[in-house]
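tokens incoming
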């Protein structure tokens, strides 16, 4: 699951909304109890976004490193909320911070999943110029995930921003190529291309509807599906 930092901020807009984090953790626990192996890549936009206005005067590499650290704050907050619900969780970081989290090692991550632990992947890919969307695609490929589910604040993929365009059309299903050709802001182009090359489906859905994570995992028609068609 790709979870944005903004989702953890909820109505606050900045920082971590503790009650919202616990609500999300409760929904993840429901899915985990179904026996599903869950890996999560979390963003850091609720604290710092390297390509945003706040980073305009900064060196891009420094700004992206700050963004990676922001994802770790969110990863630790989500781990705490999950473990308060008796869900064993491991945070794995793409940059070394051994006192805080395990380093990302692919085989160890797969072993954690096999043992029934939720694994949260922090610090993106560990490299500047790559988004957490790309990190989600990369980690999904590495752990041989069946699908990426992207939790957003809208109920799928539209041909225009539904908050700005009242008659925007929602796609129930769309191909990777059409996403790229139309420049739809589902995930960045690198992430979409990675999924296309490895035929990994993406489901985009609204996190703000209670129970949606479970519905998506159970195969109900929720949100929009991106695949090779």
């Amino acid at each position: 699951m790709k979870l944005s930092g903004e989702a953890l901020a909820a109505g606050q807009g900045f920082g971590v909304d503790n009650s919202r984090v616990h609500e999300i953790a409760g929904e993840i626990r429901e899915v985990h109890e179904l026996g599903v192996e869950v890996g999560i890549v979390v963003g850091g936009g609720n604290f710092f976004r390297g390509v945003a206005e706040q980073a305009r005067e900064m060196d891009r590499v420094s700004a992206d490193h700050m963004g990676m650290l922001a994802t770790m704050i969110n990863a630790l907050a989500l781990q705490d909320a999950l473990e308060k619900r008796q869900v064993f969780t491991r945070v794995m970081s793409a940059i070394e911070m051994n006192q805080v989290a395990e380093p990302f090692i692919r085989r160890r991550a797969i072993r954690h999943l096999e043992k029934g632990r939720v694994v949260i992947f922090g610090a993106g890919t560990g490299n500047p110029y790559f988004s957490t969307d790309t990190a989600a695609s990369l980690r999904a490929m590495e752990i041989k995930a069946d699908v990426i589910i992207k939790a957003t604040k809208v109920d799928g993929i539209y041909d225009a921003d539904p908050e700005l365009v009242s008659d925007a059309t929602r796609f129930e299903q769309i191909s990777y190529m059409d996403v790229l050709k139309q420049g739809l802001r589902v995930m960045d182009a690198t992430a979409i291309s990675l999924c296309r090359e490895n035929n990994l489906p993406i489901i985009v859905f609204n996190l703000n509807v209670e129970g949606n994570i479970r519905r998506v995992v159970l195969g109900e028609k929720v949100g929009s599906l991106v695949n090779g068609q």
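note: The chain has a mean pLDDT of 93.
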